[in-house]
Every structure is written in structure tokens, then in C-alpha cells.
Amino acid sequence: ALAQADEAPAELARRERIFASAQERYYERPPQIERGWRHHLVDTTGRAYVDMVNNVTGLGHGHPGVADAVNRQIRILNTNSRFLYRELAEYSERLLALLPDDAREGSADRDALDTVLLVNSGSEAVDLALRVAQAATGRKTVVSLREAYHGWTMASDAVTTSAYDNPDALATRPDWVHVADVPNLFRGTYRGEGAGARYAADLGADLDRLAEEGRPIAAFICESVLGNAGGVLLPDGYLADAYARVRAAGGLCIADEVQVGFGRMGSSFWGFEQSGVVPDLITIAKPMGNGFPIGGVITSQRIADALAGQGQFFSSAGGNPLSCRVGIAVLDAMAAEGLQENARVVGGRLAEGFRALAERHPLIGPVHGEGLYLGVELVRDRESMEPAASEAAAICERLRELGVIVLTTSERSNVLKIKPPLCLTAASADFVVAALDRVLSEGW
Ligand code: PMP
User: What are phi and psi of 418, to 5 degrees?
Assistant: First the structure.
């Protein structure tokens, strides 16, 4: 079976005939996956892998609760979301109940978050949040951070600034997008103490300039933890300061929680809670449906109502009875299985394991993130932080041979992204750390 695994699967040639070259695939010689179970994937030769990258399948693969929900609901009712049925309000209420108490209440500078718009993906959620924010403010300009990924639709792609996804990203943003400096404490303009305030002050200066140019801000969008940069935590005080400046300039704050929200941080359900802020709009997707396509925007009624000025908003499948039932089943399972807490405990153990490896393997630089959103940054030199990109790619290939699926992220492709299903066990976490130890001991 192992010999077979080394041969390129027939499916690869088939896929290559049909797919466009822009369609990303992983690995030079990817295993052909046949089945998934919890945090494992199994290929057609029967080989099992620990899946360290599937954050979409937050509960784990093949979850029986989700399977039952799909099976039951699709036999009873699935209709487009113009009709009146119970599931939409029930699921929306469940989502709102996940917000921190202060978010469900308004304050002097923002409304209560009490309204949910459901769509089918993260890109749609971001697209819609931008549109709602522009409608509510009557302005166009959106500020997004360098090195961000927010989606593939026209608007969500417009605020995507990562050269990982598009080497020409910065040169080709439309004029309604302003790109602000990314507050990356490890590689950015400011690094030490007080860096958060300095980045926020620079953002404030950008906002002043935009206003002077007659392009006042409609919305500021960022991930609450820099997911696509490798799980880099925002500097202390940055987000609170940035949100205050955006609001003072009349803009709305969008937290893109597609990757880092929904329990993955372990210590908090939402990424923005880490910074003690409350956004005006929250975008969610990936783990909401455990692989079933669901996305959403959580905001206030007042902000969402601005859409009415642009005609009706309607998504045929967004919020249909089936996707709502799946969403409810996911939330039930997350609670019943204590997955947020598991993310905290097992994620902490993993991070500790990686940091211990760093003491013996100089290729490991900073270990980013929290809970089960971690990034192991590989560098050729810890002082210069020279990215070890080719090493990172080779390490991923070698880890695959040892039964661990892990991939790279960041603009420099030198961060091992660790975002497994939240059901990852301590035993599997230890296995992954041991496998990385073994690979790094093989002579890098
Ligand atoms: N926002 C963020 C932060 C993302 O990481 C992604 C997907 N990687 C998206 C939005 C887009 O989500 P989707 O792929 O579901 O359209």
C-alpha cells in the first residue's frame, strides 16, 4: 500500500485535464483522499493522515450529527429563503446568542448586534458586509490591511491584498480600496513595545488623508487575528484604537471571523474578543456548516436596513431550511463535545510542543496564534527572519509521508498553518509534534 501511495493517483491526471491553472492544488504529489473521520483523512490506499489544515470541518470529518441533520431536513423541507419556516429564525437566534453580552447591547458609539443575513460562503459574507457598510454610510472607501485574504468575489477580492494570492495585488486594487499597513509585530514597520498604538496612529493619519481627499471611510475590514499571515496575533491595544479612530471618522468596523472565529481561539469564541472590541459587522462562514456551504453577516438592524435603499436582498440558498438545520447541528455538537475548550487545551499543548522544538531546531522562528489556529514560522535566521519557504514546502511533503497533512501560508509561504478540526486529540497533537521533530532532525 505504501508503494502505491508513492505513485501519482489516476485522479490527478483527470483533474489536470479539466481544471484551470489558477485552481489551486496542494502538494506536488497529492494523496487521493477517499474518506474522512474526525481529524483524520484516509487515502485510497488505506493510509491515514492527521488532518492539520481543515478548519472548514471544525467538528471533524464525517460528523454523524451533521449527516443526520442533512438527511432528516432534506426529506422534510428545503425551499428558498423567501418562504416562512421555523429554521431561519431559530438558527439566527442561536448565532446571536453566541455573541458576548456587550455586543448584544448597544453603546454610545455603536448599535446592538441583533440582525443576521445568511449567505453561502465567506466571500459572499464579506461582499455583503462591504455592500451593507457602503449603503449605511453612503460612502465608498474601504480600508483593508496589507497581507489580507478576504475572498474571491469582485468586492471581497478587491480588499484582498495578499501577494500570496496575487503578486500584483497592491498595484491592482480599485480606487475605493485603501490599503493600510499590517500591524505584524514580527515583520512589520513597528515591532516592540507600543507598536499597537503606532500602527493605529498611522491608520488614523491615513483616515485623515482620505477625508481630505474627499474619500471618507465607509468601512475598515480586518481579521481579528491575522489568519492569512499565519495566525499572527494583533498587537495589544491596536484593534480598540483602530476601531475608535474608524468610528470617529464616521466609518464602520468589519471583523472578518471566517477563519479565526467560531471557537477556534479556544479562550474566546470570537477573535475580536481577544482585543476587547465589538465590531459593527461580523463575517462568518467556513466552520458554520462543517463543510456544508453557509456564510453570514451579523450586524445591527439599522445598518442592515440600509440595504432596503438598494432594492431587495435575496440569496436563493442562503439561510434555507437545510443549511440552517446543519448550522444548528454544528452548534449543538460544538457545545455537546466541548470543542472550544478542546481547542484551548489541545491548542495550548501543541503550541508548547512547537515552542519546545524551537529550542532544538533553529529553523523554527516564532510560533504564532492561539488555540487551534497556530502558525509555525520557519526562518533561516532568527535575527533577519529570512523566510525558509523552500524548506517549509519540503517539510510539508515529508510530513505527508509521515502521516501528517499540513500546508504553508503567509505571503512568504514560510509558515506551517495549523488549523485542524477542533476535535484534535492530545495524542494526535503529540504525534504531529513528534513527526515535525523527526523531519527537522533529518538534516535541515
Ligand atoms: N475571509 C477569510 C479571512 C478567509 O480566510 C476566506 C477563505 N480562505 C474567506 C473570507 C472567503 O471564504 P470562502 O472561501 O468561503 O468564500
Answer: -115, 100
In angstroms, the CA 422 to CA 416 distance is 17
- Both 360 and 424 in one domain: the answer is yes
Best mutation site among 26, 57, 128, 149 for ligand 1, i.e. most ligand atoms within 8 A of its Cβ? 149
55 lines ligand 1 (CB under 6 A): no
Cα dihedral 201, 229, 126, 263, rounded to 10, equals -100
Q: Is 297 in the pocket of ligand 1 (CB under 6 A)?
A: no
Closest Cα to atom 12 of ligand 1: 122
Shared domain check, 308 and 217? yes
Provide the ipTM: 0.99
Nearest ligand 1 atom to the CA of 123 is: 16
Q: How many domains does the chain have?
A: 2
220-250 pLDDT, tens digit each: 999 999 999 999 999 999 999 999 999 999 9
Q: What's the grid cell of residue 46?
A: 488505506
Which residue type does 272 have? Answer: F
